[in-house]
Amino acid sequence: MAHCPAYGGAICSLCCSLDARCHDRCKPTGGLFEQMAPLFQRLLPMRLPLRVHTRIAHYLGVLLLVMVLLAAVLALIYYQESADAALSAALGPTLRLALMKTFAVLGLVAAVGSWWLVLTNESRRVAQEESDRQTQLLLREIEAHRETDAQLQRAKEAAESANQAKSRYLTGMSHELRTPLNSLLGYAQILQRDTAIPASRRNAVAVIRRSGEHLLSLIDDLLDVARIEAGKLRLDQNEVHLVEFLEQIVQMFQLQAQAKGLTFRFEPVDRLPAVVHADERRLRQILINLLANAVKFTDRGGVTFRVSYLRQTARFEVIDTGIGILPEDLSRIFLPFERSLQAQSRSETGTGLGLTITRMLTGLMGGELLVRSRPGEGSTFEMKVYLSEVRSAQITTGTQGDVCGYAGPVRRVLVVDDQASQRAPLVSFLESLRFEVRQADSGEACLREAVAFEPELILLDIAMPGLDGWEVCRLLRRNHVSMAPVILVSANAFENDADKRAAAGCVDFIVKPVFLSELLAKVKTHLDIEWVTNQPEQTAAASELTQVPDAAELRQLRELGSVGYVRGILEKLDEIEGRDGRYGAFAREFRALASAFRLDEYARRLEELCDG
Predict the structure, then answer these.
(1) In this model, does residue 245 exceed pLDDT 80?
(2) Closest listed residue to residue 490, CA positions, set 176, 189, 220, 32
(3) How far is C-alpha 134 from the chain's CA centre?
(4) Are 407 and 529 in contact (CB under 8 A)?
(5) Which element (helix H / strand E) includes 403?
């Protein structure tokens, strides 16, 4: 074995003898010219050796060699033919002339052939040098690509590490924020159900709940972006009653549009399917983001919400007459935390995540989101998404009115959480519905209570000291301690993994803060119970409305409504109700209209009472 400079590695003698492409790079002085160069340098003047290795010199050398060989061959022929003296005397002159002519002709051919041979050799050498040069360039490029790939790999690893750090940070922050929000929103929901609270205080509770839900929506937006980027967001496909679903959204934004003096038109085109397969939560999130932006950035005119359905594909169009979007902002508005230049000049604030999440969710659902806009004329957002129609629906209607209990015997529920402040709202709510509830503050206590209490449903937190919720659930199933359905309740939204739940034996998952409507739906499903509700009164009794304030107070209420002073209306209604309890029905009706900003209906009802 020996080192080969051509291949940059070891090579055996057999392979070396069979490979002629390297031109003996390992023997730089093995060529004829290299071996003769010292002799030329000694015999020839100083400058002549430099001129020997030229094209003309090579040509002359090859031609001289060929002519010498040709002359020797012809001379040998002449010598052989002139060996006979008699024949030589007779044919000698003729033979010499013929051979001289032959030598001249062959010399001309030799001159052309020698030049061709020199040019061919030089071309081959130049081609080989160019090939070697290109090979070296290719090797350098391959090495550069290898280095680039290494740098890209390092950058990818750094980006993945940063992304994981961001996900861990968001997960931790989400958990820390959701934990106090669970208590705040839990008690707010319980207080809203309490009929003993005065109406004025109930409005304050509603404000607390709305503020908490707004903070929760910001947290969810950040988590949605992180989940989509990490590829961990899954769609929850179920049956959606499309017409009722759209009516709920329309009612929500009709009130907001009316409060701003805008028209809101809902235009269903042709036939809409009764029930479709979709992720109701994500579809609602997309439409609310689009409609909320349309109402927010429209000061005059109105908003049109157009829906059509053709070949299993739904098309939603949100058309407004608002401020529009500049052409250079059309692509930027879908970037996280970015807002158009017109939006930045307005007083409305936002996180800049709404359209980002809307486009991401649309793509995740296999749809397409397009936008057309002209500054000062308005914008049109068009979303196309595949929604398969359900021919035989299995949708059950939700409960109407406030749930006050359930039919049948008392059911047992075990609430497990290491923080008493997190258990208290759930315990208070469940006990108000006639459940028998016990508490556990750790995984070990949960296992003990599961044996002693024999619960029919377990609400289990995940993050606890010692045994966490996943391990507790596995121990419950593995040791046959309890086969009651387990619903995980956690502030970590990233823990909601269907495969992980199935492996541990959990039946469902609730993300903190817990919404009572969601809790009621899951408890009903897993305990198979029927709720008992207080049916809401459709309208106030006519006899109750016979007690109305005097004309002067009605005029004051009309004046407050004409200027849109909602806070003044609520204070005036509180004053009227506090002075005389007989005006309670009147105050409740007009407080509801004013709180919902239904000022046109508010004014019309006051006109009816004044005329009456």
Answers:
(1) yes
(2) 176
(3) 44
(4) yes
(5) strand 402-406
Report the C-alpha dihedral over residues 29, 32, 36, 40, rounded to 10 degrees: -120
- Residues 209 and 212: their CA atoms lie apart, in Å, by 5
Is 46 within 8 Å of 82 (Cβ atoms)? Answer: no
CA distance 403 to 48: 114
Q: How far apart are CA 155 and CA 153, in angstroms?
A: 5
Query: pLDDT confidence of 388, banded at 50, 70, 90?
Result: confident
Cis peptide, bond prior to residue 513, ω within 30 of zero: yes
Judge contact between 253 and 211, C-beta under 8 A: no
Q: Indicate the Cα dihedral angle 435, 439, 443, 446, nearest 10°.
A: -60
Torsion of CA 490, 495, 499, 502, to 10 degrees: -20
403: CB partners within 8 A, 6+ apart: 433, 520, 531, 532, 533
> Could you identify the residue written with the tokens 């790079």?
25
The pTM score is: 0.50
Structure tokens, 46: 């100083």
Neighbours of 338 (CB within 10 A): 16
User: Do the beta carbons of residue 533 and residue 400 sit within 8 Å?
Assistant: yes
Q: Are 579 and 547 in contact (CB under 8 A)?
A: no
Give the pLDDT score at 255. 74
pLDDT at 398 over 70: no
- In this structure, is the dihedral angle defined by the CA atoms of residues 350, 351, 352 and 353, taken in order, positive or negative? negative
CA distance 145 to 131: 20
Average pLDDT over residues 182-193: 79
Distance CA 230, CA 167 (A): 8
Give the list of residues 6+ apart from residue 590 with CB closer than 8 angstroms, or none: 557, 569, 573, 602, 605, 606
Sign of CA dihedral 598, 599, 600, 604: positive
Residue 555 tokens read as 């005029």
Mean confidence (pLDDT) of the chain: 80
* Rounded distance between C-alpha atoms, residue 360 and residue 355, angstroms: 8
CATH architecture of 404-531: 3-Layer(aba) Sandwich (3.40)
Question: Which DSSP helix (H) or strand (E) runs through 533?
Answer: strand 531-534
The rounded distance, in Å, linking the Cα atoms of 402 and 532 is 8
Q: Which residue has the higher pLDDT, 576 or 149?
A: 149
Decide: 426 and 514 in contact? Cβ < 8 Å. Answer: yes
pLDDT in tens, 16-59: 777 666 767 777 666 666 676 676 666 666 555 555 567 888 88
Give the C-alpha separation, 286 to 556, whole Å: 42
Instruction: Please tell me the predicted confidence (pLDDT) of residue 540.
Output: 41
Residue 220: Cβ within 10 Å count: 19
Decide: 341 and 329 in contact? Cβ < 8 Å: yes
Cβ atoms of residues 415 and 423 within 8 Å = yes
Say which CATH superfamily domain 242-386 falls into. Answer: Histidine kinase-like ATPase, C-terminal domain (3.30.565.10)
Backbone φ and ψ for 520, nearest 5 degrees, come out as: -60, -40
